Amino acid sequence: MKRTRRPASFYFLSVVFGLFLLFLYGPTLTIGILSFQGPNGGLTFPLNGVSLHWFGNLFTTQQVGDFGGSFMRSILLGLGVMVCTLLFSVLAGFAYRRRFAGSQWLFYLTLASLIIPSILVSLGIGLMFDRLGWDPNWYSSAFGAHLTWTLPFGLLIMFAVFNRFDRAYEMAARDLGASPWQTVRLIVLPLIAPSLFGVALFGLTLSYDEFARTLMVAGSFNTLPLEVFGMTTNVTTPVLYALGTLTTLFSFSLIALVLLAMAVSARARKGA
Amino acid sequence: MRTALANISHLQSLPLALTLLVFLVFPIAVIVTVSFWGYDSYQLLPAFIFDNYQYLLSSSVTWQAYLNTFKYAVITWAITFVLGFTVAYYLAFHIRSTRMQTLLFLLCTIPFFTSNIIRMISWIPLLGRNGLVNSSLQSVGLIDQPLEFLLYSDFSIVLAYVHLYTLFMVVPIFNTMMRIDRRLIEAARDAGAHTWQILLLVIVPLCKSGILIGSIFVLTMVMGDFVTVRIMGGGLRASVGVLIHNEISLLQYPAAAAGAVVLLATVLLMLVAMFRLVDIRKEL
């Protein structure tokens, strides 16, 4: 590309963009720093010494609710939601490569699932379980509530994937005598693999952090975001920040892991 | 052959359809049904009465909450649109290498995959009475008293919305900008258009669908929100979502259900108006 001199607007917009990033990450960074507050430190600056006191505090059960348990539940729930999101969205993605009766309806229903106010999902599923006489649980009612949030993202990603998909590869495979299943397994799935990691990331992290749709449907055992929300009203020490820092770091590592997997699978595809 | 293939499509879309049926359609039907029920302190009383709606629509608290929520929605929409458009424009038209573009785009989207609640809490040490902003301003001597409006106010609520939702503007607008044929812009420049004219007369119209998708996201999310108002408003501010949530906490499910139905109708009306302007499926 020809290198031309940058217009003045470039420098102005660079500053705006830098400030935007600071706005995005600054607060998270702040509580990251404050979570190393000394044992006598408070919720705001200045730092009163530096310690791991508040991180340690997380693991003594009586201090803050049930951190370990809620963390485990959120992970298990997230993994389950991830598997279902991946499976259901990929299947539906394949379905939408052809016209079928009701496809418009299902598409609008999926969009509705995305933009419907979360409190309706929460209240609705809660009431439904209540009327049916079932006990809500994080692995049943909350599981379904999370799927209403993750599946639309999964389907939209699959649409984007197949809109850009070159059918010539598939046709070539069929011409060479591959069965439909062989074509899918050996040609289509490897080609779309990097995007599938993306769908998985949406499923896992959106479920792991989901709050509004979980509120009424988690039953007697909290997921992690519910636990954190409870803490906001009754915990007035930096232990809240320590928890925030840990769970944010956890999300960051998941994202890094998925980006790595995407890069590796994209490279493998090029190499093949 | 054709019907056989269509059947395969039906089978493939069945898990999605069933999940949405069980966890979206049925629950909404339950909400609509229960919104016509009565209740006392102990139980729900199946009936077909309009009391919940009558009470809801005749209460000034409801109207006040709607007014408040619309106010949040409009202000948030305006800010996220200007900010999101600027960021998308910078990424799409000022960053030249694809690698850098991907990296910066990722930086903008990563926070979406972290906890909203934690991101809200993160503002407390900055905006509180003794927070960073107040103490800095005081030490510089710009103010004598800590600014009270920074936290637990309309200001902090809108700030959190902008913080959480600008991404939803950036992504679709960036997406449409990347598909603008660059030759159109060169043609405009050759024809003598100024940078501002290119922006307003070429780029903005071509980004219309992205802007609309972003707007749909932001507006519907603010309309239905209760968590942000709860945390950033410190329990002092009311929105439609907060009212419903309060009724749920008091176990007044039929009242909450009526509130939810009216909220849903409001959001749907807004959507119908916006969907007329754009066909989302063509835009992916």
Describe the model.
Chain B: It is a multi-pass membrane protein. Chain B: Belongs to the binding-protein-dependent transport system permease family. CysTW subfamily. Chain B: Its main location: membrane. Chain B: Keywords: Cell membrane, Membrane, Transmembrane, Transmembrane helix, Transport. Chain B: Residues 66-274 form the ABC transmembrane type-1 domain. By secondary structure, chain A is mainly α. Chain A has helices spanning 8-34, 53-58, 67-95, 103-115, 118-132, 141-163, 168-175, 180-209, 224-234, 239-271. Chain A has one domain (69-271): MetI-like (MetI-like fold), CATH 1.10.3720. Chain A is built from 10 helices and no strands. In chain A, helix 1 crosses helix 10 (239-271) and helix 5 crosses helix 6 (141-163). The longest helix of chain A is centred in the C-terminal third of the chain and has 33 residues, at 239-271. Chain A starts with 7 loop residues before the first helix and ends with a helix. The model of chain A has no long low-confidence stretch (mean pLDDT 88). Chain B has 284 residues and is mainly α. In chain B, strand 1 and strand 2 form a beta hairpin. In chain B, helix 3 packs across helix 8 (154-178), helix 8 packs antiparallel against helix 11 and helix 13 (240-249) runs antiparallel to helix 14 (253-275). Chain B is built from 14 helices and 2 strands, in the order αββααααααααααααα. A two-stranded antiparallel ribbon of chain B has the order 1-2. Chain B is 74% helix and 1% strand. The model of chain B has no long low-confidence stretch (mean pLDDT 90). Chains A and B meet through helix 1, helix 3, helix 4, helix 5 and helix 6 of A and helix 1, helix 3, helix 4, helix 5 and helix 6 of B.
Coarse shape of chain B? globular
Secondary-structure class of chain B = mainly alpha
Fourth-tier CATH superfamily name of chain A: MetI-like
How many separate helices of chain A?
10
Rg of chain B: 23 Å
* CATH class label of chain A: Mainly Alpha
Q: Give the spatial strand order of the biggest sheet of chain B.
A: 1-2
Based on helices, strands and strand pairing, what is the structural class of chain A?
mainly alpha
Helix percent band of chain A: over 70%
CATH architecture of chain A: Orthogonal Bundle
Strand content of chain B: under 5%
Give the rounded overall mean pLDDT of chain B. Answer: 90
Order of helices and strands of chain A: HHHHHHHHHH
